[in-house]
Amino acid sequence: MDSLLIATPIQLDLREQQELEMTQTSKRLAHIDHHESRLYHMVSGTGTEHETLHPYDPHHIRSHLTEHASQSHYQGQRAPEDPQYYAAIAKSLQNADEIILMGEGHGHSNAAMQLTKYLGKHAPETLDRVIAVESLSKHHSTEKQLLARARAIFRLHHTPPATPAPKLTREAIDPERWIDFCATFSNGNHGRRVSMLLSGGRISPSELMHDQPFFSLAYDTPGKGDHLDISVGADEVDYMHVFNHPAKIFQWKLPDGEVAILEAIDSQGVVCNLNFTG
Protein backbone atom coordinates (compact mmCIF):
# COMPACT_ATOMS: atom_id res chain seq x y z
CA MET A 1 0.00 0.00 0.00
CA ASP A 2 1.40 3.39 -0.95
CA SER A 3 2.11 5.71 1.94
CA LEU A 4 0.37 9.07 2.15
CA LEU A 5 2.42 12.09 3.20
CA ILE A 6 0.33 14.86 4.71
CA ALA A 7 1.92 18.29 5.07
CA THR A 8 0.92 19.88 8.36
CA PRO A 9 0.60 23.68 8.65
CA ILE A 10 3.89 23.91 10.52
CA GLN A 11 5.66 22.47 7.45
CA LEU A 12 4.33 25.20 5.19
CA ASP A 13 5.45 28.78 4.87
CA LEU A 14 2.82 31.53 4.92
CA ARG A 15 2.33 31.65 1.14
CA GLU A 16 2.05 27.85 0.84
CA GLN A 17 -0.41 27.62 3.72
CA GLN A 18 -2.47 30.44 2.23
CA GLU A 19 -2.58 28.73 -1.18
CA LEU A 20 -3.48 25.37 0.40
CA GLU A 21 -6.37 26.89 2.33
CA MET A 22 -7.65 28.72 -0.75
CA THR A 23 -7.61 25.61 -2.94
CA GLN A 24 -9.47 23.60 -0.30
CA THR A 25 -12.46 25.95 -0.26
CA SER A 26 -15.22 26.58 -2.79
CA LYS A 27 -15.36 30.31 -3.48
CA ARG A 28 -18.09 32.31 -5.20
CA LEU A 29 -18.24 35.92 -6.32
CA ALA A 30 -21.68 37.33 -7.07
CA HIS A 31 -22.06 40.76 -8.68
CA ILE A 32 -25.74 41.58 -8.49
CA ASP A 33 -28.03 44.34 -9.67
CA HIS A 34 -31.76 44.43 -10.31
CA HIS A 35 -31.36 43.35 -13.93
CA GLU A 36 -28.75 40.62 -13.91
CA SER A 37 -26.23 38.75 -11.79
CA ARG A 38 -22.74 37.72 -12.71
CA LEU A 39 -21.68 34.69 -10.70
CA TYR A 40 -18.17 33.28 -10.69
CA HIS A 41 -16.64 30.12 -9.33
CA MET A 42 -13.11 31.16 -8.48
CA VAL A 43 -10.44 28.45 -8.70
CA SER A 44 -6.82 28.95 -7.61
CA GLY A 45 -3.94 26.87 -8.96
CA THR A 46 -2.15 25.02 -6.18
CA GLY A 47 1.10 26.66 -5.16
CA THR A 48 0.95 29.34 -7.86
CA GLU A 49 -0.33 32.87 -8.27
CA HIS A 50 -2.25 31.88 -11.39
CA GLU A 51 -6.02 31.73 -11.03
CA THR A 52 -8.55 30.43 -13.54
CA LEU A 53 -11.90 32.21 -13.31
CA HIS A 54 -15.01 30.51 -14.67
CA PRO A 55 -18.34 32.34 -15.07
CA TYR A 56 -20.67 30.37 -12.84
CA ASP A 57 -24.33 30.16 -13.93
CA PRO A 58 -25.52 26.59 -13.25
CA HIS A 59 -29.15 27.57 -12.73
CA HIS A 60 -29.45 29.78 -15.85
CA ILE A 61 -29.97 32.95 -13.88
CA ARG A 62 -29.14 35.11 -16.89
CA SER A 63 -32.11 33.78 -18.85
CA HIS A 64 -34.29 34.11 -15.77
CA LEU A 65 -33.36 37.76 -15.46
CA THR A 66 -34.58 38.61 -18.95
CA GLU A 67 -38.05 37.90 -17.63
CA HIS A 68 -37.58 40.25 -14.67
CA ALA A 69 -40.10 43.11 -14.66
CA SER A 70 -38.94 46.34 -16.28
CA GLN A 71 -38.59 49.35 -14.02
CA SER A 72 -40.30 51.49 -16.64
CA HIS A 73 -43.59 49.76 -15.82
CA TYR A 74 -43.52 51.38 -12.40
CA GLN A 75 -43.42 55.07 -13.40
CA GLY A 76 -39.77 55.59 -12.58
CA GLN A 77 -39.85 53.62 -9.34
CA ARG A 78 -37.66 50.59 -8.78
CA ALA A 79 -39.58 47.43 -9.63
CA PRO A 80 -40.81 45.31 -6.71
CA GLU A 81 -38.31 42.65 -5.66
CA ASP A 82 -38.79 39.27 -7.32
CA PRO A 83 -38.39 36.57 -4.65
CA GLN A 84 -37.73 33.95 -7.33
CA TYR A 85 -34.78 36.00 -8.56
CA TYR A 86 -33.09 35.97 -5.15
CA ALA A 87 -34.10 32.35 -4.59
CA ALA A 88 -32.29 31.36 -7.79
CA ILE A 89 -29.15 33.23 -6.72
CA ALA A 90 -29.30 31.71 -3.23
CA LYS A 91 -29.58 28.23 -4.75
CA SER A 92 -26.44 28.78 -6.83
CA LEU A 93 -24.53 29.86 -3.71
CA GLN A 94 -25.75 27.18 -1.31
CA ASN A 95 -22.72 24.88 -1.71
CA ALA A 96 -20.07 27.61 -1.54
CA ASP A 97 -17.72 27.73 1.43
CA GLU A 98 -16.93 31.43 1.01
CA ILE A 99 -19.00 34.06 -0.74
CA ILE A 100 -18.44 37.68 -1.76
CA LEU A 101 -21.43 39.81 -2.74
CA MET A 102 -20.98 42.98 -4.77
CA GLY A 103 -23.64 45.45 -5.82
CA GLU A 104 -24.09 49.04 -6.95
CA GLY A 105 -25.75 51.86 -5.07
CA HIS A 106 -26.87 52.08 -1.46
CA GLY A 107 -29.75 50.87 0.67
CA HIS A 108 -32.75 49.47 -1.24
CA SER A 109 -31.13 50.30 -4.57
CA ASN A 110 -28.29 47.88 -3.85
CA ALA A 111 -29.38 44.40 -4.92
CA ALA A 112 -26.52 42.79 -2.99
CA MET A 113 -27.92 44.26 0.22
CA GLN A 114 -31.38 43.01 -0.72
CA LEU A 115 -29.93 39.55 -1.25
CA THR A 116 -28.40 39.55 2.25
CA LYS A 117 -31.86 40.29 3.66
CA TYR A 118 -33.31 37.43 1.64
CA LEU A 119 -30.57 35.06 2.80
CA GLY A 120 -31.04 36.10 6.41
CA LYS A 121 -34.71 35.15 6.22
CA HIS A 122 -34.65 32.14 3.90
CA ALA A 123 -31.08 30.78 3.90
CA PRO A 124 -29.22 31.89 7.05
CA GLU A 125 -26.68 29.07 6.68
CA THR A 126 -25.64 30.58 3.33
CA LEU A 127 -25.48 34.08 4.79
CA ASP A 128 -23.08 32.75 7.45
CA ARG A 129 -20.61 31.96 4.66
CA VAL A 130 -20.67 35.48 3.17
CA ILE A 131 -17.28 36.99 4.01
CA ALA A 132 -17.80 40.41 2.39
CA VAL A 133 -20.56 42.62 0.97
CA GLU A 134 -19.31 45.57 -1.08
CA SER A 135 -20.99 48.58 -2.68
CA LEU A 136 -19.43 49.63 -5.97
CA SER A 137 -19.87 52.47 -8.41
CA LYS A 138 -20.67 51.73 -12.04
CA HIS A 139 -17.20 53.01 -12.93
CA HIS A 140 -15.62 50.18 -10.91
CA SER A 141 -17.75 47.28 -12.12
CA THR A 142 -15.84 45.88 -15.07
CA GLU A 143 -15.20 42.17 -14.91
CA LYS A 144 -11.46 42.74 -14.54
CA GLN A 145 -12.00 45.11 -11.61
CA LEU A 146 -14.51 42.81 -9.93
CA LEU A 147 -12.26 39.78 -10.11
CA ALA A 148 -9.17 41.67 -8.98
CA ARG A 149 -11.05 42.99 -5.96
CA ALA A 150 -12.45 39.54 -5.16
CA ARG A 151 -9.01 37.93 -5.36
CA ALA A 152 -7.68 40.50 -2.90
CA ILE A 153 -10.56 39.89 -0.46
CA PHE A 154 -10.23 36.10 -0.60
CA ARG A 155 -6.47 36.30 -0.08
CA LEU A 156 -6.87 38.70 2.84
CA HIS A 157 -9.44 36.36 4.35
CA HIS A 158 -6.83 33.56 4.30
CA THR A 159 -4.01 35.66 5.72
CA PRO A 160 -3.49 34.75 9.39
CA PRO A 161 -3.20 37.66 11.82
CA ALA A 162 0.32 38.84 12.44
CA THR A 163 1.98 37.36 15.50
CA PRO A 164 2.84 40.14 17.95
CA ALA A 165 6.57 40.68 18.21
CA PRO A 166 7.97 39.49 21.53
CA LYS A 167 8.97 42.19 23.97
CA LEU A 168 12.74 42.61 24.15
CA THR A 169 14.74 43.80 27.14
CA ARG A 170 17.75 46.05 26.47
CA GLU A 171 20.77 45.60 28.73
CA ALA A 172 23.80 47.90 28.70
CA ILE A 173 27.17 46.19 29.13
CA ASP A 174 29.67 47.90 31.43
CA PRO A 175 32.86 48.74 29.46
CA GLU A 176 34.91 47.31 32.34
CA ARG A 177 33.34 43.92 31.54
CA TRP A 178 33.67 43.97 27.76
CA ILE A 179 36.56 41.49 27.51
CA ASP A 180 34.90 38.90 29.76
CA PHE A 181 31.47 39.61 28.27
CA CYS A 182 32.73 38.92 24.74
CA ALA A 183 34.22 35.58 25.79
CA THR A 184 31.01 34.52 27.55
CA PHE A 185 28.86 35.80 24.68
CA SER A 186 30.92 33.84 22.14
CA ASN A 187 30.60 30.59 24.07
CA GLY A 188 26.85 31.02 24.53
CA ASN A 189 26.00 31.95 20.94
CA HIS A 190 28.55 30.07 18.83
CA GLY A 191 26.91 28.50 15.77
CA ARG A 192 23.69 30.55 15.87
CA ARG A 193 22.56 32.15 12.61
CA VAL A 194 23.30 35.86 12.48
CA SER A 195 23.01 38.85 10.15
CA MET A 196 24.90 42.12 10.60
CA LEU A 197 23.58 45.58 9.74
CA LEU A 198 25.47 48.88 9.89
CA SER A 199 23.50 52.14 10.11
CA GLY A 200 23.53 55.62 11.63
CA GLY A 201 26.18 58.30 11.60
CA ARG A 202 27.09 59.36 8.07
CA ILE A 203 26.78 55.95 6.45
CA SER A 204 23.89 54.48 4.52
CA PRO A 205 22.32 51.35 6.07
CA SER A 206 24.04 48.26 4.73
CA GLU A 207 23.90 44.55 5.50
CA LEU A 208 27.44 43.19 5.69
CA MET A 209 26.47 39.58 6.31
CA HIS A 210 23.26 37.60 6.14
CA ASP A 211 22.26 34.37 7.88
CA GLN A 212 25.78 33.20 8.70
CA PRO A 213 26.93 30.96 11.58
CA PHE A 214 28.21 33.14 14.41
CA PHE A 215 31.77 32.24 15.42
CA SER A 216 33.02 34.72 18.03
CA LEU A 217 33.12 38.23 19.44
CA ALA A 218 36.34 39.73 20.85
CA TYR A 219 37.33 43.13 22.21
CA ASP A 220 40.76 44.74 22.07
CA THR A 221 41.29 47.55 24.58
CA PRO A 222 42.39 51.07 23.53
CA GLY A 223 46.00 50.09 24.14
CA LYS A 224 45.64 47.29 21.57
CA GLY A 225 43.53 49.10 18.99
CA ASP A 226 40.14 49.69 20.66
CA HIS A 227 37.91 47.59 18.41
CA LEU A 228 35.40 44.75 18.36
CA ASP A 229 36.21 41.76 16.16
CA ILE A 230 33.03 40.07 14.92
CA SER A 231 33.66 36.70 13.25
CA VAL A 232 31.43 34.26 11.40
CA GLY A 233 32.07 30.73 10.20
CA ALA A 234 31.20 27.14 11.02
CA ASP A 235 34.41 25.34 12.00
CA GLU A 236 36.75 28.25 11.36
CA VAL A 237 36.55 31.99 10.71
CA ASP A 238 35.27 32.69 7.19
CA TYR A 239 34.81 36.44 7.63
CA MET A 240 35.68 38.99 10.31
CA HIS A 241 34.43 42.55 10.62
CA VAL A 242 36.39 45.06 12.71
CA PHE A 243 34.19 47.65 14.44
CA ASN A 244 36.45 50.48 15.58
CA HIS A 245 36.17 52.59 18.72
CA PRO A 246 32.99 51.19 20.26
CA ALA A 247 31.46 53.57 22.80
CA LYS A 248 28.50 51.46 23.96
CA ILE A 249 27.45 47.82 23.79
CA PHE A 250 23.94 46.54 24.47
CA GLN A 251 22.31 43.14 24.28
CA TRP A 252 18.60 42.72 23.59
CA LYS A 253 17.05 39.65 25.19
CA LEU A 254 13.83 37.74 24.61
CA PRO A 255 11.55 36.95 27.58
CA ASP A 256 13.22 33.52 27.88
CA GLY A 257 16.65 35.16 28.27
CA GLU A 258 17.98 34.30 24.81
CA VAL A 259 19.87 37.09 23.04
CA ALA A 260 18.07 38.40 19.95
CA ILE A 261 20.28 41.39 19.10
CA LEU A 262 23.76 42.59 19.99
CA GLU A 263 24.07 46.34 19.46
CA ALA A 264 27.32 48.29 19.37
CA ILE A 265 27.57 52.07 18.86
CA ASP A 266 30.82 53.84 18.03
CA SER A 267 31.97 57.36 18.91
CA GLN A 268 30.57 58.75 15.61
CA GLY A 269 27.07 57.32 16.14
CA VAL A 270 27.47 54.39 13.74
CA VAL A 271 25.41 51.41 14.94
CA CYS A 272 26.34 47.78 14.37
CA ASN A 273 23.49 45.32 14.97
CA LEU A 274 23.98 41.57 15.10
CA ASN A 275 20.51 40.07 14.57
CA PHE A 276 20.26 36.44 15.65
CA THR A 277 17.61 34.27 13.99
CA GLY A 278 18.48 30.81 15.21
From TrEMBL:
The lineage's top-level taxon is Bacteria
The protein's organism comes out as Stieleria bergensis
Name of the protein described by the UniProt record: Uncharacterized protein
